[in-house]
Amino acid sequence: MTQSRTETQSDVQPVQKGWFAQNWVALNTIWIKECTRFLRIWVQTLVPPAITMSLYFIIFGSLIGDRIGQMGGFTYMEFIVPGLIMMSVITNSYSNVSSSFFSAKFQRNIEELLVAPVPTAVIILGYVGGGVARAMIIGVIVTLVSLFFVDVQIHNIGVIVLTLILTSTLFATAGLINAVFAKTFDDISVVPTFVLTPLTYLGGVFYSLTLLPEFWQWVSKANPIVYMVNGFRYGFLGVSDVGIVTSISLLIGFNALLFGIAYYLLKTGKGIRS
User: Fold this and answer.
1) How far apart are alpha carbons 259 and 230 in whole angstroms?
2) How many CA atoms lie within 13 A of 158 on its CB side?
C-alpha cells in the first residue's frame, strides 16, 4: 500500500511541474513578443511621450507655473510632475495593448492562440504584461526628463511603485477589453479620445481638488483617475486630496473587475469567434 502511494505521488509530480513550466513558457513568450513589438519601433513608442511631456513641463511648469506660484505647499512644477508621469503611463499602457490585441484579432492570429493549450489567464497576463512594461519604461523616461526642470523628491517609493503597477495593469486590461469589442482600427481610438483624455485632464493633474467648490470636489471624486493621480502624487510629495488607502483599494478593486471581464470575454470568445 505504501509502495503504491509512493509510485502514485511520483507519477503526479512531473505532470504538475510540466503544467507550470508550459504555462510559464507561454506567458514568457507572449510577454517577450509584446515587448519586442514596441521596442522594435521605439522611435514611435518611446520618444513621442518624452517630447510631449517636455512641452508640458516647459509650457505649464516653467511659463505658466511661475505665475501660478505654489500649489499645496510646493512649486507648481513639483506639483504637476507626478500627474504628468501618471498621464503618460495611462495613455501608453492602454494604447499598447489595445493596438496589439486588435492587430492580432484583425490578422486572425489571436484565434490560433485561443485554440492552443494555453489558459485564458496566461494570455491576458502576457498582453497586459507587455503594456505594463511599456508604461514602466515611459514612466522612467518622463521622470528623467522632469529632472531637467525640477528636483524630484520621493516621499514613499513603495507607494510610487505600487500605484504605477496597479494603474498600468488596470489600463492595459481596459485596452484589451476595448480591442475585443473594436471592429475597426478607428474603434480603438474612441475611448482614449472621448473618455481617457477628458477624465485625465479633470483628474487633478494640473490642479488640487481643494481649489474647487465643495460640490465639484464631490463630483471630481467620481472620477477614478483622481485616485490614481493623487496616490502617485502622495508617493512623491506626501500630499493627497484623497486617502491613500482608498486610492490603493479602488485600484485593486477595478483591476479585479476588469480582469474578470477580460477573462469572460476571451473564455467565451465574445467579439473574436463570432
Assistant:
1) 23
2) 2
Res. 237: pLDDT tops 70: yes
Helices 224-237 and 244-268, axial angle in degrees (round to 10): 130
pLDDT for the residue numbered 67: 78
Closest CA to 205 of 11, 56, 39: 56
Q: Report DSSP state, residue 238.
A: S
Q: Has residue 58 got a pLDDT over 70?
A: yes
Residue type for position 244: I
pLDDT at 33: 93
**Whether the predicted model's global pTM rises above the 0.85 cut:** yes
Instruction: Report DSSP state, residue 121.
Output: H
Does pLDDT of 130 surpass 50? Answer: yes
Q: C-alpha cell of 266?
A: 476571451
Paired residues of 75 in beta bridges:
70
Q: Is 3 exposed, middle or buried (0-12, 13-18, 19+ CB in 10 A)?
A: exposed
List, in sequence order, every residue forming a beta bridge with 74; answer none if it has no partner. 71
Rg (CA), the chain: 21
Distance of CA 69 to the CA centre of its chain: 31
Q: How far apart are the first and last CA of the chain?
A: 52
- Measure the CA–CA gap between 225 and 251, rounded to whole angstroms: 10
pLDDT at position 10: 46
Q: Kindly give, in sequence order, each residue whose CB lies less than 8 Å from that of residue 227, ignoring residues fewer than 6 positions away.
A: 242, 246, 247, 250, 251
Q: What is the C-alpha to C-alpha distance for residues 239 and 156, in angstroms, rounded to an integer?
A: 11
* Higher-pLDDT residue of 219, 7: 219
| Region class of 73: left (phi > 0), else alpha (psi between -120 and 50), else beta | left
Residues making up the chain, counted from first to last? 274
Residues 6+ apart with CB under 8 A from 172: 93, 94, 96, 97, 127, 128, 130, 131, 132, 135
